[in-house]
Design a protein that fits this description.
Blueprint lengths: L3 H16 L3 H13 L1 H24 L3 H5 L1 H32 L7 H13 L2 H10 L11 H34 L3 H23 L4
Helix pairs in contact: 1-8, 2-3, 2-8, 2-9, 3-6, 3-7, 3-8, 5-9
Length: 208
């Protein structure tokens, strides 16, 4: 099995990758600021569920499809970009509703959880990243590579939970103060909508 000397630097690298600005941690930040700490935690759990799917895809060899097939890669990235555009539209729409009703839109925990899953699994770059990153720390001489990939994926998810959990709690605390004001709530939704559009554009123009 994987040695501790390998897992420690892998865990450290995973923490640094989680801290580095990217679509997922920005997504947690915006959702926590808009809807509170609990919402951020639920979105984070959805994102990590998506990481389980990506880990499984790498362990079973499915992720190779996105590396070899331009059609599969393009289809998934445009689905993801379209979903982000939809989220942007919802955020801008919520701003208008705040003006009319002076109340933020409420989201169910289930909806937020599914939002996190969709945000993650519709990004083919995550599968390609896992496909390139995880096998580097696997050693065929130490047992089945697929089992090692699952173990590495679990460690990566643990690091993600720690980093994204911190982001959710901090952003949620700040958001609780800001969202008491209708004006700030409106601004936060517009910022979130703009961020979603930027992420959609980045995803739609990304290459393998």
């Amino acid at each position: 099995m994987i040695e501790l000397e390998t897992l420690i630097p892998f865990f450290a690298a995973s923490l640094l990758l989680g801290i580095a600005p990217g679509p997922d941690n920005i997504f947690v930040l915006t959702q926590s600021a808009l809807h509170g700490k609990k919402a951020g935690i639920i979105v984070m759990l959805g994102l990590c569920t998506g990481l389980v799917a990506h880990t499984t895809a790498v362990a079973l060899g499915v992720a190779v499809i996105f590396h070899t097939s331009a059609v599969a890669f393009s289809m998934l990235k445009f689905i993801g970009a379209g979903y982000l555009v939809y989220l942007a539209w919802q955020a801008f729409k919520a701003s208008a509703e705040i003006i009319r009703n002076a109340l933020p839109e409420k989201f169910s925990l289930r909806k937020l959880y599914l939002r996190g899953i969709l945000m993650n699994i519709t990004n083919p770059k995550v599968s390609l990243f896992f496909l390139a990153f995880l096998p580097q720390f696997a050693d065929p001489s130490r047992g089945p590579v697929s089992i090692q990939i699952f173990l590495l994926g679990g460690v990566f998810i643990l690091a993600t939970l720690l980093v994204f959990g911190g982001i959710a709690l901090l952003s949620g605390s700040i958001g609780q103060v800001l969202t008491r004001s209708v004006r700030f709530n409106k601004i936060l939704n517009k910022v979130a909508g703009t961020v979603f559009l930027g992420l959609a554009l980045k995803l739609a123009t990304t290459e393998r």
